[in-house]
Here is the input.
Amino acid sequence: MQQLPAGDNDIVYAGFWRRCGALIIDQLVLGLAFYAVAFLVVVTTAGSGAWNGVSEDHVPTWFFIAYFAMIGCYYVAAAIYYSLQESSTHQATLGKRALGIKVTDTQGRRLSRKHALGRWFAASLSYLSLYIGFLLAAFTARKQALHDMVAGTLVVDRWAWTEYPERQQRHVGALAVLLGVFLLLVPVFGIIAAIAVSQYQDYVLRAKVASAIAVARPLQPVVEEMRRQNGACPVNGEGGLRDAGDYATVELASIEAGAMQDSGACALQLTLPATGTAGLAGKRLWLEFDPGTGSWTCSSEIADKYLPPDCRG
Here is the structure.
């Protein structure tokens, strides 16, 4: 397709939303393709027994080497993807083609491979600026992002600087808007998801503690009755109280009955499994009986956020 001299056309520059949409598509294409290949390499390597001779002591080292090698390969693949396609006859990556835009130099000419590769390296400035460099495309006169200014490039409608300038799309398409909004909302969804996961994990741990306490609740009347009858705190094996380990469940290691050393109050000591969830493993909780008021109080080594309200300090 014959290119016309710069200035002979009414040029439509690709705006922020079209560029956002193209970026999302390109990242999806690159990510899916790269990690699909990486998965096949890992499966093939593991299946061939290549790791059989590696000592367990060296596994973490090789894991980190493999991880950083994969990161390096990803960036090499990205550099090839962007530079070859933006210097091709299409002058655009798959994402840009889908949104009907292309990359040119400031005179509307096709980029050389060297120029396209330099533009990709310059894009690191836009990433390092926490995407503010990309946001500049919404405000600059020719819709240039930071890396466009550095590399001396433009992103324009696919029909710009051609024989058919009237075919240029002058309005943002619905696809570009939807993809752009999606890109902006991804961090928001990520934050919400992280909060939700944290809250769910706390809920699960609270449920485990509540389950352990529920096992001890039927023993409280037994302790009260023994204290009234004998004037002393019962211990395991007395008055229907079984051995401490007999009360073990998935959420509970043992329940010991006896008197608290500091106050002498009758109490049930609940110990959680040592191999349990981090934050709960091996922790203890005490249910203490006050014969004067006939009430029970709760204290624990466990963080308050995992405890029922009446056990919090």
Notes: The chain has two domains: 16-172, 215-311.
